[in-house]
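Notes, p. 3: input format for complexes.
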Amino acid sequence: MKIDNGQIQDINSTHLKAHQSHFDFLSDVLTSKGVDVNNIISKLKDFQVAIPSWALGAGGTRFGRFSFYGEPSNLEQKIQDIGILHSLTQTAGAVSLHIPWDVPDDYNAIKELANSLNIKFDAVNSNTFQDQKNAKESYKYGSLSNTSKAVREQAIQHNLDVINIGNKLGSKSLTVWLADGSCFPGQNNFQTALQHTENSLKEIYKGLPNDWSMLIEYKPYEPNFYSTVIQDWGTSFMLANACGEKAYSLVDLGHHLPNSNIEQIVSILMLKGKLGGFHFNDSKYGDDDLTVGSIKPYALFLIFNELVYGMQNNPQNPDLAWMIDASHNVKDPLEDLIQSLEAIQEAYAKALLINQDDLKDAQQNNDVVKCQEILQDAYRTDVRPLLEKARLDAGGALNPINAYRTLNVRNELINERGKNTVATGL
Ligand SMILES: [Mn+2]
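Output follows (426 residues plus manganese (II) ion):
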């Protein structure tokens, strides 16, 4: 299924008048405060978030999985789904492939399809957290950190293969997330495990093309429950430094212990020029992979404040690879992703409202109350008309969820694909 622009324009026409009056009002208010509204809209239009190839089907838990009808059963259909998201939201202009779940059969055909839908290939993700069919060695006790050289070599080779696959598609970065760690005290020697991991990453780094970057993700626990080799941003930062200038840390919002100050982590990594990628989701208890902004929208806003500050003040930090890394147990995956994209844009727009000069003055004068007023004035502004305007100008839907439902997208997909399709992934 492909949504054409005429269908979106038809649906938009019924909401245009309401949008215009909301936008005019907000635009007047913001302009009177000295905000450059057009600049914010143009930044929102430029902000594209990659959709991972594993997020188009229903997610599961270790207790089970409830499938969602009409799921994409191959890479072509997954890219078509991202095309639907992108045509409605105009903010999902990239796909992040997981290897080996989504290895293309025909590279040219996949590239052409993505190109026709305006979708780029973002970071490619390796998988050494599962054993693959016919694999010689097992990752049961770790991959890049394993005590066995043969296992480490197999895991290194897999990452090199992933780089090759990504290179054929135009990707420019490799994301490494390791499940390596231990479930019980004494199982691992912490130092040996880290040393093996560092050496293995250096081997992968040697195979990285010059214009590529390597993104090192961290996570404190799960699937191992006593220790994780790359448990936190400090470990990821150390490893990135050890590998070289093309290696960076990747922050996944769900990969922190409760109440971690993620905005501070983001800020420090950008100061050091080492924040390379970012995975969006939300959580209440652990790595819950819930819809972005559904639980802690204010924390998301504070994180975006630091991201915006870093993008404006830290030329030493590269452009970031943005991706949604969420799972959908009970929602239509496409509707869930639309809600996440909206929440990301909303937090970004609010962060862009902050007058950084005023904030700096207030900080300089230790005017704590004023600092909070500046942040919360931005946070309390309903920026949705700005998001609508950015989508409208780019050819997207004023209200993507409404358009998705009006166009009966899920029913169309079920008619095309049937009820019992299953997407590859977890
Ligand atoms: Mn992630």
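The radius of gyration is 22 Å.
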